[in-house]
Inverse folding.
């Protein structure tokens, strides 16, 4: 029987990448495995939270005792998240949401006719930014996977999306980012404070982030 300091709290976690259809058999996706988000969902549940996990396609098993809503596209993830937003205390957006989707998905499989194929892409809604505009009592935690200028890009997102905390990782580092079991992150707080964590398992990173969220919940409520 461990620490149950999230008892009575509802925590919404998004995980894995989205898939944006090109035609009935193809999609645009990314390398997100869902490991960081699932670890966060498990760590929050172990601390007594009621966890709602909204997950894109992932090969990971649905964690026991957690309500999982499976989605494919960013639009579906947005619907699932907005349906829960008013009644949750914390949102952790660990999902790698596609920034753009094909403007139209073809009804039939696209045939191999020309030498080139041009897809027109259109911007997806930024779910987290929308939550930042709507937020009342909720704590909002974002992730920033970057390949360059890690801190400045992450800080910009924290401000633009009205977040309480952002977790930045350089996905080019070995032992960090997509599909690995470990991560190397920097945590940036709303007040500008930055903390660097060493290479840790995603579960260890999740435990530390949940600790920080507990402190924020105590200070704000
Ligand atoms: O894509 P970006 O680097 O801006 O992602 C930063 C944060 O915003 C992540 O937490 C991600 O889950 C979230 N996001 C979102 N909807 C998008 C794009 C990103 O919620 N369309």
């Amino acid at each position: 029987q461990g620490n149950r300091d999230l008892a009575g709290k509802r925590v919404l976690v998004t995980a894995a990448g989205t898939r944006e259809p090109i035609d009935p058999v193809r999609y645009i996706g990314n390398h997100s495995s869902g490991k960081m988000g699932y670890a966060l969902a498990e760590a929050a549940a172990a601390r007594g939270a009621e966890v709602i996990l909204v997950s894109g396609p992932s090969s990971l098993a649905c964690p026991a005792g957690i309500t999982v809503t499976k989605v494919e596209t960013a639009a579906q993830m947005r619907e699932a998240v907005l349906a829960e937003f008013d009644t949750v205390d914390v949102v952790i957006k660990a999902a790698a949401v596609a920034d753009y989707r094909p403007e139209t998905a073809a009804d039939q499989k696209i045939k191999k006719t020309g030498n080139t194929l041009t897809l027109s892409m259109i911007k997806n809604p930024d779910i987290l930014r929308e939550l930042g505009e709507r937020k009342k009592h909720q704590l909002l935690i974002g992730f920033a996977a970057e390949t360059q200028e890690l801190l400045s890009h992450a800080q910009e997102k924290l401000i633009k999306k009205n977040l309480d905390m952002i977790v930045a990782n350089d996905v080019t580092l070995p032992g960090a980012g997509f599909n690995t079991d470990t991560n190397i992150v920097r945590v940036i707080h709303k007040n500008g404070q930055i903390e660097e964590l060493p290479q840790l398992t995603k579960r260890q990173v999740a435990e530390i982030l949940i600790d920080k969220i507990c402190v924020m919940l105590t200070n704000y409520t």
